[in-house]
Amino acid sequence: MTAQLPFPRADVENLTREEAAQRGGLLEVTRYRVEVDLRGAPERSAATYPVQTRIEFTASEVGASTFLDHLGASVESLVLNGAELDLAAHVGPARILLPELQAENTVEIRSTSRYSRSGEGLHRFVDPSDEQVYLYTQYEPADSRRVFPVFEQPDLKARFSFSIIGPQHWQLRSNSPAVSRMPLEHEQTTAGDDAAGPLVRVEFAETPRMSSYITALLAGPYHHVEGHYRGSVPDGATVEIPLSVLCRSSLAEHFDADELLDLTHRGLDFFHAEFAYPYPWGKYDQVFVPEYNLGAMENPGLVTFTEKYVFDTAATDAQYETRANTLMHEMAHMWFGDLVTMHWWDDLWLKESFADYMGSLAVDEATDWTTSWISFANGRKAWAYVQDQLPTTHPIVADIEDLEAADQNFDGITYAKGASVLKQLAAYAGRQAFREAARRYFARHAFGNASLGDFLAVLEEVTGANMDDWARAWLQTAGVPVLSAELDAAGMGTGPGRVLVREQGIDPATGEPVSRPHKIRVGVHVLDPASETLVLHAAQKVFLDPAAPECLTVVPKLSVPADVPRLLLPNEDDLTYAKLSLDAESVAAVLTYPVADPLARATVWAALWSMVRDGELPARRFLAAVQQLGLGIEEIVVVQGLLRQSLTALERYTPADERAALQRDLAARLAAELTRTSGGDHQRATARTLATLSRRESSQLELLESLLDGGAEDHGISGLQIDEELRWAFLQALAAHSRVSLDQLDAELAAKTTARARIAHRLAAAARPDRRVKVAAFGQALAGTDDDGQELSNDHLTATVEGFTVAGDPETAAVIERQTEAYFDALTAVWERMSQGQATRVVSGLYPGTQDLDPGEEPAEHPVALRTGRWLQENADAPAALRRLLIEEQDQLLRGLRAQAAAQG
Known about the structure:
By secondary structure, this protein is of the alpha+beta class. Its EC number is 3.4.11.2.
């Protein structure tokens, strides 16, 4: 009898950095050949599919053992170097053991994998509008192992040859172009109305060396539009690339393929000029897929995007710009991340921070949008500032011990803080030096792996400067720098009235002060009586030396006019990453007068929001400023951000005794704003926010009902398109207050059954203020299944969670609150039962984080804060990723309670 090998699932599935390093030192992987059989995918009951995998690799130590990662349904055969291995002894729930390696090895595996409903692995989606089946893969950071056995770590690059068996009329695609498409005349599926029909086997060209997490497969009756790119790199070499954009067939009428192809041409021109390295992946397909967990994924040659970027309802210019930014971000990854890849997830920033920065830069310089850096300041950096003030913050170069930690680190630090620091680096080292460093980096490490040291090496070559101090200060410490500008009342060196800039920072990991070098511009904005706006009076470049006494820097040749409203802005042009502490006169000025310059205005509003979150600016003053000054801002991306922040301010940072009146005031202001413009982005954004606010606030429900019934003109509203998105947003608000029945919601869904409608219907149904409804929705969320026991897809799980949390009245809020103990009791089981992505939706989405502080109560004494602390204490050995979510949610709760306390005081 062969002894069973131990494969404890919880431990083995979570690959550690140490294990990856040991395996990476032992192996060099040559190539994979993988065939995926999707002939059964159209069948209604399809749950699994067969896979055949052949892997060639070498081992530096003869006789050693290693393992493949595999999260499939089963393994049917395992042959290593011609010898069939015993499955019971060598196949575990997450790994396949390969013993007694030779110098050169070949392993062949026949296995079965599961279709995904969570967006991890090979996701299967049935379009409710026409019952067509669509498939796509999503692997980052480690989900290719859900499809085929693989050495799942980024530094074990190899060449991949894929083939797909599927219906003849489907689009079957992978990273590389198809090299053959052969009918399977004797293997047709003929049974049932959902049969695949005639089948084909499509073989794809072998890829260049690449990591497993960026391999990709696509299958389904996708609508597609072809294009072609012809361009050149700076040395004059011509580059030709076949292009294609794809989406579900039912969305074809809304698919603006020409616009997407035009953006693709612009991006490729920009990156070829910037990087001087021709696009290395042959074709360039971009496909927009349903139920996607991310904005997009940089699979070379087959980039996947959320189909939310196919605008089947009215979209604002900010949404179109966001889509362009995402497109450019993923295109930057073709070089940063795909061509040159990090060894392990510690250096995840080497691709994500660069792509985030380059995406914004490309939109700014290669498209017609002029608001890219405004969007960056208002959106991406705001995300970073929030993340960097959590107790779980980390340096940009993170310490990633295992795959669970890697999955958690796709966060605001890795993306937005890193990108912000790179923008500062471009200012610090110079744009030309930054460009030349990137070019050398790609030329030197193409199709390989690199580290922080490799990037700093090329930067030092170009600049001639030692970058160690810069890297240590910016990349290897955590926490948000704080910049403040003040008048030199003491006459330090230059005389009274001059401007001083103070830089402060604490590394939360060590508790020690940390100073960073900054190259910034300091601006003085003063009131222009003619326009009644704050306009730029003067600005001066300055270098903030971290070694300066008391971290104070005198700004030379910058004076401030007296006796006039003014703003001192210590980050003009938003060149650096820092939270701004505005002096009292500046705060008074910006809460009274609009700032004329768009980028300065976005920077100021970001500073005001930080003050709200820090309890330094009461939410009521922020809300008043948004209504007085914010709604009239021209840039819709800023307006949308302020509206989102207003809702958060009401939910989290407003004392309970003020909330009802402030909600009514905002709802009335939004209703009035609908009449101010006829159509357009501002009206659209206002209507969306009014609908969301009305889930919890009832004063404008009659207006929403009237708008649904076509009564806009009765309220002086013109130009507002009540399309599918707004109809369901209004219905969700009405459902939360029992103003529509389940039968009415069902009828609305039956009238137009789309993917969007099904998700919206589920949210509206769960939002109804009925105890039985809430208890049922809570149970579905914890189980991850619907009433029939069917697994909820990722989007439907999110809708269930979000609908449950809607409380349109105090009685419903009390019902929700009574589930708190059950929530904490279920956390460990949820984490063990669900994939990490699905579990995260439940753990974060159901956390009771919107709480009120009773008069005289200390934030730390709030029952939910105490219950969270007790769970963390009692579950010290819980998975680190789960504990991180709870720690972050508790911190957000306490921050809100402290802001409420400050406002009450």
